[in-house]
Amino acid sequence: MLGFFVRRIMVMIPTLLAISAITFVIIQLPPGDYLTTLVTELESRGEAIDQSRLQFLRETYGLDKPMIEQYFVWLGGMLTGDYGYSFEYNRPVADVVGDRMLLTIVVSFATIIFIWVVSFPIGIYSATHQYSLGDYGLTFLGFLGLATPNFLLALVLLYFANVMFGTSIGGLMDPVYMDAPWSWGKMVSVLEHLWIPVIVIGTSGTAGMIRRLRANLLDELHKQYVVTARAKGLSPARVLWKYPLRMAINPFISDIGNLLPQIVSGAAVVSIVLSLPTTGPMLLDALRSQDMYLAGSFLMFLALLTVVGVFLSDVALAMLDPRIRLEGGANR
Amino acid sequence: MTRYRYPSGPLLGDYARATAGLVLTGLPPLLLPLSPWVALPLAVAAGLFVLFAARTAQRHMTVIEMDNTGIYARGPLGGSIPWEHLAQVRLNYYSTRRDRGLGWMQLRLKGTGAGETVRIESTLDGFDEIAERVAGVARGKGIGMTDTTVSNFLAIGIDVESEPTGFPHGSTAGSFSTRETSTTEAQ
C-alpha cells in the first residue's frame, strides 16, 4: 500500500499545480480585470472614477504586473494562507469565505449523509426485489427525482414548509439569528431550516445513486458464483452481504470523489433560490464580477476537494477490492 | 535454490519518485512560512516519501531465495517461511489509473510462526515462478484464499482452485510438478 500511496500522491501534486495554472489563466481570460468592470459599472450609472486613483489601485493589487508574476504571487499566497483580497467585499478572501464555509460544510455533509442513507437501502431493495411493485414504485420516484429541476422543488418545499410548519422563507436560520453568535436557539433554527436544502440538493443525487446501485447489484446477483453459493445452501442475506454487495458498492465508493465538489458548486442555483448563506452564490458573483482572488480561491478549493475526494475513493477501493481487471492489464 | 532480485530499472524509478516527492513536499515548508493547513499534509506526505525511499533501499538489498524447503527474503527486514509453515496467501493488485490498467501486484505470504512474513512485488524478476510455486503449495495444503486473490492468480494464468497435478493433496512442500529445483540464478 505504501507504493500505492506514494504513486497516488505523485499524481496529485502535479494535478493540483496544473489546475491552479489553468484556473488562473481562465479567470484572466475575459478582457479587462475587476477594476475595468467597476469603471464600466460606474460609467453606466453616470459616475466617473479618477484615472490616477485607478492606476493606484491597479498597482496596489498587482493587476499591472505580468500574468505569470501574478500567478506565482497568488500561488505563494495560497501556500502561506494568504488567499488574496476580495475587491468586491473589500476584505481578505479568508475573512469573506470563512463566514460562509461552516454553513456550506454543514449543508454538504448533511446532504451526503441523506443521499447515502436513503439510496443504499432503496437500491438494495430494488435490486433484490426486481420487477416487484415496490421496485416499480421506487424506480418511479427515482426517475421523478432525476427529472424534477432542483429550483422548482426548492420553491415547492419552501411553500409547504411555510404553510405547514411556519418555517420562515429562505435562509438557513430565522432572521433574528442572522448576525447573532452561535447559541442553542440558533442551532435549532439551522436544523429547522436545514431539511429543505438537504432534500432539494440530495434528491437528484439520491435518484442517481439508487439507479447505479440497483444496476450494479443486479449485475452481480446474476453471476454464476451467486447461484453456486445459493445452491450450496447459503442464506440469501448472507450471499448478498458476503460478495455481491461488496462488489456493487465499488462504483458507489468511486463516486465520493465527484460528490464533494458537486455539492459545493452544483448547489449554487438552489442556494440562490433558497437564499442560503453558503459559498455557491458567492462563487457565481465572484466569477461574474471578475473578483479574481475570490473566484480563484473558490475554484482551487473545489479542485482540492475533487483531487482529495478521488484520492480517498481510490484508497478505499484499493483496500476493499485490490483486484486486477483483465481488460486493463498489468505491467511489471 | 533459486535466487531472485528486484531489477534496477523499476528500483531507479522508485528512487526517482522518492526524490521528486521529497523535493515537492519537503522544500516548500523549508522555504516558505506555510499555513498549518498546508504544512501538515505536506509534512505527512514528506514522511511517506522518506518511508518509500527506505523501503526502496531495502528492496535494493534484498534477495529472494526459494527452494524445496521454503521461501526466504535475505536482506534488511527480511523474513523466511518454510513451506510447511505457510498459512496465508494474498495476491493484491494496485493501480493508480482509473481504468485499473498498468498496475502492479503484491504477493503477501504469512507463516504460522512469529515474524514469518514475506512480501514480494510483481516487479521482481521471476515473480510468476514464485507465484506459481506458492499457489501449488497453497493448493496442496488447502489454504483458503479470498475471492480477490483467486481472481488475481487467474489473471496471471494460475488456477488455484483446480485440482493439483503432481502435488499430493494435503502434503507439505517439496514436489512441484513443473518447477526445476536445481540451483539457478535468476539474476
TrEMBL record, chain A:
Domain ABC transmembrane type-1, residue spans: 101-311
Membrane topology: Multi-pass membrane protein
Subcellular compartments: Cell membrane
Main location: membrane
Alphabetically ordered keywords of this record: Cell membrane, Membrane, Transmembrane, Transmembrane helix, Transport
UniProt-listed SUPFAM superfamilies: MetI-like (SSF161098)
GO biological process, one term: transmembrane transport
GO cellular component, one term: plasma membrane
TM region positions: 9-29, 101-124, 136-161, 256-278, 298-320
Family: Belongs to the binding-protein-dependent transport system permease family.
Name under which the protein is recorded: ABC transporter permease
From TrEMBL, chain B:
UniProt keyword annotations, A-Z: Membrane, Transmembrane, Transmembrane helix
Domain of life: Bacteria
Region (Disordered): 164-187
Compositional bias annotation for Polar residues: 172-187
Transmembrane segments: 34-54
Name used for this protein in its record: Uncharacterized protein
Organism: Skermanella aerolata
